[in-house]
Amino acid sequence: MAERNPLTYELKNGWKEMSPEIREDAMAFCGDYIRFLNDAKTERESVTVMVSMLQSAGFVDFNTYIAGNKSVKPGDKIYWVNREKALIAAVVGNQDPTLGMNMVGAHIDAPRLDFKPNPLCDDGGFVMAKTHYYGGIKKYQWVAVPLAIHGVILRKDGTKFNIRIGENPGDPVFYISDLLPHLAGDQMGNTASKVVSGEQLKVVLGSIPGTETEEDGEKRSLKENLLTLLHEQYGLSESDFLRGEIEVVPAFQAGDVGLDRSLVGGYGQDDRVCSYTGLRALLDLEGVPSKTAVCYLSDKEEIGSVGNTGARANWLENFVLELCHAWNPSYEMVALRRSLSNTCFLSADVTAAFDPCYPEVYEKGNSAFAGCGVAIAKYTGSRGKSGASDASAELVASVTDIFDGEQIPWQIAELGKVDAGGGGTIAQFMTDIGMDVLDCGVPVISMHSPYEVTSKADVYWTYRAYRAFMQG
Q1: pTM for the model
Q2: What is the CATH number of domain 20-110+267-471?
Q3: pLDDT digits over 391-413, tens only?
């Protein structure tokens, strides 16, 4: 690999920095990543898949340590699940955790449509499910595309029913209608945010009319007919929907993009690309790290990191406190504060890759480019750095020195022009509890769309960057 010129900031091409062996490794890594995207389209599914990966690598549920009042020692591999929607995994290092940890944190939720609490309706010959969109989406992107239904329902008998329809060969898919251009004169005159309204995002579930019942000769409604089908095939009733969490996601599969297969296309890469690379980095650490290495994966980032599975919750603090106690039972709350204030945290979230089709919203000299390596954002937020975490010069220097030492191509980035918009990450909530935080992740094209695109070079180099950081 070519050395970085110390006198200038030079953008390097991540592909050119690869030997043939590394390129082969990168392609294989991204093949695994694509399979993960297809298996983990919701936060619950992400946790399930990741726990399986962790257990296969010898990680043990941290609850067994807590319940048994068991001490941790260097080299122990542990994980902790929060309500099936968030996850922490760690490799215990040689140093006392109060001296700080090396932590990579991402989120595993993604923009989507959620069923309303009472979703079912029939109108115009269709049975439909009413939805409420989750996160920042362009609503018009979700119409006239194949959709899948994922989720969980707790039946009244106490059993849990996991839903995943529209992903396997032979499965039906679902659909939200769009207005034909012949009648769309008024619609086309609307601004993009009003072309499709939130209330129009109704998912078509079926259309076979009801038949007369043998009991009383009365004709079932469309809705009653569908409910009968749901009960016969899945044992569900309408009241069960009120007790469930049901998400609507794109049905198409993630895969290679481009004749050279250099790109990954798929749903939910914000932020499962950083979640996956962060977890793989932890799994692939060599030996026992000096400092405890942690991968923290939260929920609810797309709606403000709220709730007891989001980054604003005290769950991460609880983990650090329990870890310090398991290292030394005499440690009390002061150990938690010392550990947090000494911890270095990479906020592993995506940023916008420069899009040559829309150059007017980017400032090229401060943009991330697809294929040029892991992207560092000194600060996020919008306009006047509102909602930002602004990393110190010392932290930026420390992290980039690690990357340079491992010859990992990196680039500096802002999310668009100053007055064009912007966005935040979980970084600000980590600084609130005393950590040193730097945003660091993969550049993405078409972020928050049903089909996002990343460069395989960036995915791989981000994995290598996180691994080098955790290794210490």
Answers
A1: 0.94
A2: 3.40.630.10
A3: 999 999 999 999 999 999 999 99
For 235-315, strand residue ranges (E) read 244-250, 255-257, 263-266, 293-298
Grouping H, G, I as helix, E, B as strand and the rest as coil, residue 14 is: coil
Token pair in block for residue 293: 């290495």
Task: For strands 436-441 and 374-377, give the pairing.
Answer: antiparallel
306-337 CB burial, b ≥16 within 10 A, e <16: ebebbbbbebbbebbbbbbbbbeeebeeebbe
Look at residue 113 and give its three-state secondary structure.
strand
Q: What does the alpha-carbon distance between residue 392 and residue 376 come to, in Å, rounded to a whole number?
A: 13
User: 467 pLDDT band (50/70/90 cuts)?
Assistant: very high
Q: 112-250 adopts what CATH topology?
A: Aminopeptidase i, Domain 2 (2.30.250)
Q: Do residues 181 and 154 touch, judged by C-beta distance below 8 A?
A: no
Q: Give per-residue pLDDT as tens, 260-289.
A: 999 999 999 999 999 999 999 999 999 999
The answer to whether 20-110+267-471 and 112-250 have equal CATH topology is no
The length of the chain, given as a count of residues = 472
Domain ranges of the chain: 20-110+267-471, 112-250
Tokens found for residue 119: 């979703």
- What does the alpha-carbon distance between residue 363 and residue 410 come to, in Å, rounded to a whole number? 18
Cα distances (angstroms) measured from residue 343 to each of 291, 320, 339: 9, 10, 6
